[in-house]
Amino acid sequence: MNFSTEPHKRRDGIHVPDDFAAQLAERATRAAVAATQRRTRMRRLTWTAAAIAAVFASGVLVLRPSSAPMNTPEVELTADEAWTALEQGEVTLTEDELLELAELHGITSL
Amino acid sequence: MQPDALRDFTELVQRHADQWYRAALRIVLDHGSAQDCVQDASIKMWSNWNSFRGDAQRSTWAYRFVVNEALSAKRRSRPVATTDPSELAGIPDSPYFEADAVLTALYAAVAQLPEQQRLVFQFRYFDELPYADIAHILGTSQGGLKANYHHAVAKIKKTMVGLNLDLHSES
Q: Contact, A16 vs B18, CB < 8 A?
């Protein structure tokens, strides 16, 4: 660009002292470099956080218990045990269940 | 970034900080804002350093960042029409600005121009930039710039002549 280089002959009346221009240049350069470093550091932190989150999510997927209902061992209950429990008022049965249990137990009248 | 790039960038800023400040000041009209514009533009220049395609001089490419930053700052700081008399008169508020009556009148005349004409006039008359560089800075055609400059000069002449007549009649 073809700028006039004599500060005292600026057509626009703006006469910038050399020391001010030097300070401005230094400040601007420092700010530019610092901003780039900050951005690089932020990018690195973001990537690290994303990587940690991905590893954690993978771990959770691998280790989490199945969503299917757990198989609990079946409890064997004899008709006599069921009748005793019924007599002691420890269980409540519907009419059909009561008749079925009575039949199993050989009871014809309740 | 390469150390060579940092050295080139530092040299560019050192060589042109004065011009960038003046260009920004003429747009934002405020000493502090003009410094901020130079700084913010420098940050953008450095972060885009490798995207320079070489279709203009590096200094012209850099100048565009400063002008865009100053125009953005001006729009941000003045969402509604100003009533500040010095701003209306287009007078830069800076310790480094000195103007006689003629230059003050010139600034006042320039302030009345539409933005594009004002910018073209400032780059052409104050900075003596070639049209090719101005076209790159403003992203417009040289033909359009010449037309804008022609209109700007005609309006300024008219204003200045009228002003001179008033000054003569007062004395």
A: yes
Same domain, residue pair A80 and A57: no
In chain B, what residues touch A2 (CB-CB under 8 Å)?
A: 128-130
Mean pLDDT of A39-44: 69
**Identity of the residue in B17, B46, B103 whose CB atom sits nearest the CB atom of A13:** B103
Model pTM score: 0.69
Domains of chain B (ranges; CATH) run 1-94 (1.10.1740.10), 99-171 (1.10.10.10)
Tokens 């010449």 sit on residue: B146
Chain A CB contacts of B99 under 8 Å are 13
| Mean of pLDDT over chain A | 75
CB contact at 8 A, A30 and B41: no
- pLDDT tens-digit series, residues A54-96: 888 887 887 776 655 556 566 677 777 777 777 777 777 777 8
Residue B93 touches partner A, C-beta closer than 8 Å: no
ipTM of the complex: 0.81
Residues spanned by the domain of A43: 14-61
Neighbours of A57 (CB within 10 A): 10
